[in-house]
């Protein structure tokens, strides 16, 4: 598999020709960026302003354009430039983000604004990848969109299109270096901004996850999945054995009255509106006890001391496996605030059944009740 030079040029030309009359040319972060770019002095001429593009690229990380667009407008009204973002409190930022999910993205934007104000806008891949919350594809997206620099991208749309184009027998997650190579090989170095946008538009408008519109596709004559009449069979899915595993640290915070702290997830997004015990995903190289302390601080604005482990277990969702590590915690300082949830509440452990919890939390509730019973009988004896 791979692309010959002639094939690469042919694919690029066909894509850009299709894009000229069928692409999404009205994305506001591009038109607004043109308007704002003249205000900057340290960026190459012909650039678009990176701020609206950066915000859009981060919002698009786990979200489709139709969903993120109202949030992007709201954000740009509230924080029209990086200076105002930097001066805002995290609570204000989370409030504007509320409902969009994956709150680490909002926290990272806020954190990154301070870095950008201090060091100015990065102009290299490494520079962007040093910004919190920016991986290689987001960095490539910003550099090509804003500055027309020749960096490839590999978001979900591009992975799908390339997997189909080559009828890849492996799931995209397993062959990322190969997909990166293809995205880089195909990139039009004369028009990287347009090419990357065209590739994303092809994935969003034609080569859609379900029912791709192959008859309208500029690449149908080159597409292996289409020639096999198996467009819908690609990309190949991960088997449950190869599901990625995340580790989540959970804190059971008890107060002096014996009540336990729970919070209610936001209504939009995964498991929206359900209650849960506070916690979050472990960062690379982070001790799980540190994860819990950090999550409590970031999401509830409280300081806790992490005590004994209560339980640990695995729970499998349709797309990933989560390893939960649950610890008993003591509240040291602060009043819990729902910075990343819609409500927080102290409840008696025997009343937990009155609140809807995601399935995985049942293990935690049972372990907590058992532990409290053991403590009670120990005290009684
Ligand atoms: S022909 Fe169909 S499957 Fe192949 S790239 Fe085009 S839309 Fe996707």
Radius of gyration: 24 Å
Mean pLDDT: 90
Number of domains: 2
Q: What are the low-pLDDT stretches, counting only 5+ consecutive residues below 50?
A: none
The strand count comes to 7
Beta-strand percent range: 5-15%
Succession of helices and strands: HHHHHHHHHHHHHEEEEHEEEH
Supply the number of helical segments: 15
Overall, the morphology is: globular
Give structural notes.
- With 381 residues, the chain is an alpha+beta fold.
- It has two domains: 5-233, Hypothetical protein, domain 2 (Endonuclease III, domain 1, Orthogonal Bundle), CATH 1.10.340.30; 243-380, Nucleoside Triphosphate Pyrophosphohydrolase (Alpha-Beta Complex).
- It has 15 helices and seven strands.
- The protein has a four-stranded mixed β-sheet with strand order 4-1-6-5, sandwiched between helices. It has a three-stranded antiparallel β-sheet with strand order 3-2-7, with no helix packed on it.
- The termini are far apart.
- The structure holds iron/sulfur cluster.
- Iron/sulfur cluster binds next to α10 and α13.
């Amino acid at each position: 598999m791979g692309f010959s030079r002639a094939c690469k040029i042919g694919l690029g030309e066909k894509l850009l020709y299709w894009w000229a009359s069928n692409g999404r040319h009205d994305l506001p972060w591009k038109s607004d960026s043109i308007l704002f770019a003249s205000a900057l002095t340290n960026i190459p001429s012909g650039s678009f302003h990176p701020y609206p593009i950066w915000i859009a690229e981060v919002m698009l990380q786990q979200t489709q354009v139709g969903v993120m667009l109202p949030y992007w407008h709201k954000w740009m009204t509230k924080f029209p430039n990086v200076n105002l973002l930097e001066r805002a409190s995290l609570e204000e930022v989370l409030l504007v983000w509320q409902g969009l999910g994956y709150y680490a993205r909002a926290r990272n934007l806020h954190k990154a604004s301070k870095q950008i104000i201090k060091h100015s806008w990065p102009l290299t891949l490494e520079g962007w990848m040093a910004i919190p919350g920016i991986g290689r594809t987001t960095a490539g997206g910003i550099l090509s969109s804003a500055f027309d620099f020749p960096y490839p991208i590999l978001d979900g749309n591009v992975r799908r299109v390339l997997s189909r184009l080559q009828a890849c027998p492996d799931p995209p997650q397993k062959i990322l270096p190969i997909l990166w190579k293809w995205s880089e090989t195909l990139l039009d170095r004369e028009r990287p901004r347009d090419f990357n946008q065209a590739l994303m538009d092809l994935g969003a408008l034609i080569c859609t996850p379900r029912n791709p519109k192959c008859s309208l596709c500029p690449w149908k004559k080159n597409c292996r999945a289409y020639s096999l009449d198996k467009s819908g069979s690609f990309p190949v899915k991960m088997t449950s054995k190869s599901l990625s595993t995340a580790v989540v640290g959970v804190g059971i915070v008890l107060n002096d009255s014996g009540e336990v702290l729970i919070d209610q997830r936001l209504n939009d997004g995964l498991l929206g509106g359900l209650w849960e015990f506070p916690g979050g995903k472990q960062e690379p190289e982070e001790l799980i006890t540190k994860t819990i302390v950090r999550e409590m601080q970031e999401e509830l604005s409280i300081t806790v001391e992490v005590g004994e482990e209560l339980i640990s277990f695995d729970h499998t969702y349709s797309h990933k496996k989560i390893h939960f590590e649950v610890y008993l915690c003591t509240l040291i300082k602060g009043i819990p605030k729902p910075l990343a949830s819609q409500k927080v509440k102290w409840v008696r452990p025997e009343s937990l059944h009155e609140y809807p919890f995601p399935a995985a939390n049942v293990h935690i509730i049972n372990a907590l009740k058992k532990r409290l019973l053991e403590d009670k009988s120990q005290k009684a004896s």
